[in-house]
From TrEMBL:
Residues 1-24 are annotated as: Disordered. InterPro entries: Flavin_Rdtase-like_dom (IPR002563), Split_barrel_FMN-bd (IPR012349). It comes from Rhizopogon vesiculosus. SMART domains: Flavin_Reduct (SM00903). Gene3D superfamilies: Electron Transport, Fmn-binding Protein, Chain A. Residues 11-24 have a biased composition (Polar residues). Keywords: Flavoprotein, FMN. It comes from the Eukaryota. This is Flavin reductase like domain-containing protein.
Amino acid sequence: MSDIPPFDATAHTTYTQPPNPTWTYGQRVDTTPAGKAWVAGEPEGWKVYNTAETDKMDLLMLMMSGIAPRPIASVSTINEQGVENLSPFSWFNTVSSYPPIISFACNDSSSGRLKDTAVNVMNSQGFTVNIISEPFIENANATAINAPPGFDEWSISGLTKEKCVQVKASRIKESAFSMECELYKSIDITHPVTGEHNSTLILAHVKYIHVRKDMITDRGFIDLTKFKPVAGMGDDAYARVGDAYRLAWPTWAQEEATIQDALMTLASR
């Protein structure tokens, strides 16, 4: 990687206006400078992938890079013999806040067996999900190694185990946002034609959330300028949260008149 610039540790998240602050309802994408540049590639057309005929590795590369950025969960589990496991997952997101449910998909190993994380989750029903931040991305990335079954990735991570309130598995002390979880439901993901088992979708019920106090804003949000969460981008690329912009969600009560005016203007053209 000597041909790419070094990491800039001085950069941090800043907030700006949205890309097109003067946009109005019904305005076409190609009427803004950025939108016009964006649609300039449309004449080249689209390459359509029939997933039933596309190689599984090609599908993996497409979906990992096309569905991005994705948050990364560092999942800590423990097996029935007391051996702990730590592994990152980017097929991860939130499902519901009440009840607090999160999900992550644990793909089978290249040999077709269930990974330790999936086995441990289904056997113990207690585990932690830890959000990765920039200062320890290398530590967390080391735990992605394809180690043999039963290997304790904590031993090579340089991360610190911290006890939980309820679950036996450790949480990562360096993580500013960790969740103690119990298995809510596991779903076997099989190919609809061949029946081949490819992945296990884990739905987790969050029982306790550990948040570092210096990360919490007065409004109860997590401060992204301090949190520095890392995102997965496909290939071996990770992303940082750089410039963020404020864009309020519209409400019908406030926007109805503006929308009706915009629709009348569009209809008269």
